[in-house]
Design a protein that fits this description.
The structure is a single chain. The chain is an alpha/beta fold and about 250 residues long. Helix content is about 40%, strand content about 15%. A five-stranded parallel beta sheet has the order 2-1-6-5-7. A two-stranded antiparallel ribbon has the order 3-4. The protein is elongated, with a radius of gyration of 23 Å. The chain binds S-adenosyl-L-homocysteine. The site of S-adenosyl-L-homocysteine (SAH) has 19 residues, from strand 5.
Length: about 250
């Protein structure tokens, strides 16, 4: 998988290239990262990538000529796959989209700066606009890095068996269960007994119940979607009732 970040701050890619799971994926050649800097395509004397907005108003707008050339160069490097523009006006990014992207062989991520990008670049060069959420960043780089990280976890072999992505939140339509490690008692709080029992079926049942219950409490929208899609079995519904009853008893 080859990802090309188009950005005037290409060094920001170091955050994912050099660290953690994504860093290992790069070293193992499961993930190739490249950057293209629009400034290298700015041919005026000051190599400017931005200019004043038509119609007036505050801020600057990214100029179409260098950006278009940069995206075209990025497309050549990525070889294939979509061009996504980071934008608070885009479709909200989620795990399902991350999984879809992981099936591509290439990907171009375009990070805006200033007030944003000349609309004609978006119209002519971009397949989809992607938003991280309802807030405004000062640049698209952090959004692009989030996309790379969330997507890379779905590339074959990037996560080991033990921390397989499929067990994390959203993969099954539910939030993950709570996790515990040593010591057995911390700050007076013991680890749930069942996790020490060695009874794998009971542990699985407990984890499923916690996932279901948490999703009900924190993200009822996710649970409803799963229920409508027929993803909740009769035993899941029983676990949800058990969870609610235990909650009421305060256990
Ligand atoms: N004027 C624009 C915001 C520009 S912010 C507007 O109000 O819609 C500058 C750049 O940061 C954008 O071009 C985009 O690439 C990035 N950005 C800001 N917020 C973002 C978000 N929520 N998700 C993804 N990218 C974002």
């Amino acid at each position: 998988m080859r990802v090309v970040l188009v950005s005037v701050f290409p060094e920001m890619i170091g955050a994912v290239r050099d660290n953690g799971v994504t860093g290992r994926a790069v070293r193992d050649s499961r993930l190739e990262l490249a950057t293209v800097n629009p400034r290298d395509y700015a041919r005026d004397r000051h190599r400017s990538v931005d200019d004043r907005p038509y119609g007036g108003g505050p801020g600057m707008v990214m100029r179409p000529e260098p950006l278009t050339e940069a995206v075209e160069a990025a497309r050549k490097i990525s070889g294939a796959g979509p061009v996504l523009c980071m934008s608070p006006q885009g479709r909200r990014f989620d795990d399902a989209w991350a999984r879809e992207l992981a099936r591509e062989s290439g990907l171009v991520l375009l990070a805006g700066r200033y007030e944003g990008i000349d609309e004609r670049v978006i119209a002519s060069q971009v397949d989809a606009e992607l938003s991280l959420g309802d807030f405004v960043l000062s640049g698209g780089e952090l959004a692009a890095l989030c996309v790379i990280d969330a997507m890379a976890r779905w590339l074959p072999g990037v996560l080991g068996h033990a921390d397989s992505a499929a067990q994390d939140s959203f993969a099954s339509g539910l939030l993950d269960c709570p996790h515990y490690t040593r010591p057995e008692v911390f700050a007076g709080e013991p680890v749930p007994e069942v996790l020490l029992s060695g009874d794998h079926a009971a542990i699985e049942r407990w984890r499923r119940k916690q996932s279901l219950g948490r999703t009900q409490e924190r993200r009822p929208d996710l649970l409803e979607r799963l229920r409508e899609a027929g993803g909740l079995s009769a035993s899941d519904e029983q676990l949800l009732r058990d969870y609610a009853a235990e909650r009421q008893r305060g256990s």
